[in-house]
Fold this protein.
Amino acid sequence: MYTELKLYIDGQWLDGKGRKSEDVINPATGKSLGSLPHASAADLDNALGAAEKGFALWKATSAYDRAKILRKAADLLRERHDHISKVQTQEQGKAYAESRAEVLTSADIIDWYAEEGRRSYGRIVPGRAKGVRQMVLQEPVGVVAAFTPWNFPTLTPVRKIAGALAAGCSLIIKASEETPGGCVELVKCFADAGVPAGVLNLVFGVPATVSEHLIPSDIVRKISFTGSIPVGKHLAGLAAKGMKRATMELGGHSPVVVFDDFDPEKAADTIAAFKYRNAGQVCISPTRFYVQEKGYNKFVARFTEFAKGLKLGDGLEKETTLGPLANPRRLDAMESFVNDAKARGGKIQTGGSRHGNQGFFFEPTVITDVPDDSKIMTEEPFGPVAPIVPFKTFDEVVQRANSLEFGLAAYAFTTSSTTAAAIGDAIQSGMVGVNSVAISTPETPFGGIKESGYGSEGGIEGLQAYMNTKFISQG
Ligand code: NAD
């Protein structure tokens, strides 16, 4: 029911024979799902050579023809969504319904880029001298090296693959070794849709070894990374050495501000469901809840009720609404957040412990009465732990929300259009959801500021991330 794990280089699927490998673990059971081959140094060199050759071919393919192939890949992904969703749930843990939504959204993302790739317009700027044509053109950047993490095995790779391919770039993607199956299945869709050999290559290995091999290569012109801030800084440094373009989608610690004028229970219903999606292992997950005093108690009660109602279990079981954490590192991290909060006077409203003795389950947790300098209020939780604290005034909450070095996502709830506009302006964040959590769609830019990174994926910005601007003055 899982998938056969292979590398994909220059149009060939390569298995583990003669290569190092590692086991992929099902986080619901702790058992191995299969063995993942690692690319050798020679494999990585082959991938670089193939991508260079692939770029020349793909760049010369018209945007119209590229779009046809991309749309076919989206159709294949939709046709195969049930199998791919099950593969993802087994390796990553999320409930099947979430996996399915992820795979179907991934198909929508491919369609968006297929269409947008045909609109990479340039412009003509009036010349100063008679007869001079000043042309601004968009060209594909070249070979891309992309690196994706374990929380969205299909969706994060697809943003990079579809964006790069629509722009006319070739790429080598190193997807997560912990959740490789989603990306293997995704790459199969592109290959079966007719993406030529060498244009898209998939490798796995020891992350630092692969990135340090690929990024300094003269063949690579752009990197795109999604993952933690420390790794992002390291990879951005490697890219800077070769003056290479980079997109960095890093961590966040998203504040949620609920103003007194908004029904606190309605806010709790919306934001609690969003908080526990993928067990909180989402970079835009709401993670610090500031509720204005009047509605505070009602918000806490309703949010806690929601958390208590979640059904922990294997994501493949129908009644499961909260799967396990993706790996044992997250379990240790959750325990450390809870212990620190308790030591600082935090009150556990629900949860707070591991669940069961198999797999990596952690209870949905709500903590109140934590100080702003506690670990849970200052470090990205990336798990099912929600701290809720009260606030008094607009200026105070803005100061507290902006006090960290993160700037990925933020949320606010208010019925006042004046407050909505003011909070949207005041929050230091790449994305702000006001009375809405819909901040990640194929058509809109997705990206952070401050230490959460730079560059956008999605929207027209997501295509431009893979384009160079060229100016031609023709006399
Ligand atoms: P980590 O810092 O070890 O790794 C983060 C990701 O980067 C992983 O996918 C890993 O394979 C990759 N990576 C690590 N070193 C690399 C290297 N030298 N070259 C290329 N890739 C490399 O942390 P982790 O334990 O996997 O996750 C913990 C933290 O990472 C979370 O708390 C969260 O802050 C962050 N994270 C963010 C996202 C996101 O969507 N932005 C996704 C996953 C993890």
The mean pLDDT is 98. The chain has 15 helices and 20 strands.
